[in-house]
From TrEMBL:
<feature type="domain" description="PTS EIIB type-2">
    <location>
        <begin position="3"/>
        <end position="100"/>
    </location>
</feature>
<dbReference type="InterPro" id="IPR036095">
    <property type="entry name" value="PTS_EIIB-like_sf"/>
</dbReference>
<keyword id="KW-0808">Transferase</keyword>
<dbReference type="Pfam" id="PF02302">
    <property type="entry name" value="PTS_IIB"/>
</dbReference>
<dbReference type="GO" id="GO:0008982">
    <property type="term" value="F:protein-N(PI)-phosphohistidine-sugar phosphotransferase activity"/>
</dbReference>
<dbReference type="InterPro" id="IPR013011">
    <property type="entry name" value="PTS_EIIB_2"/>
</dbReference>
<protein>
    <submittedName>
        <fullName>PTS mannose transporter subunit IIA</fullName>
    </submittedName>
</protein>
<dbReference type="GO" id="GO:0009401">
    <property type="term" value="P:phosphoenolpyruvate-dependent sugar phosphotransferase system"/>
</dbReference>
<dbReference type="InterPro" id="IPR003501">
    <property type="entry name" value="PTS_EIIB_2/3"/>
</dbReference>
Amino acid sequence: MARKLIVACGSGVATSTTIAEKIKNRFENDGIHFPVEAVDYKSILSELRNASIYVYIAKPDQAVLDEAERLNVDVYPGIPFLTGMGDQEVYEKIVESTKK
């Protein structure tokens, strides 16, 4: 399994890039060296094969969640990074996932 965090939204440009940058900045501030990449949701099934952490914008469909589970990819919500509500709790869980 690749050690990479992916953030997916519909186009892989706007929202996912914003959240990916926020996570990258926090990683840098905390001295965590872990790749972060924004991707589009249309390619999520193939992207999961190259990831160990998946941060979603809109709740993924069951097939995506099942594939993430099969591949042992940890899945977290990304909206807290936009709203600022609950982002620290989600971030702490992501940091734990980077240590696996």
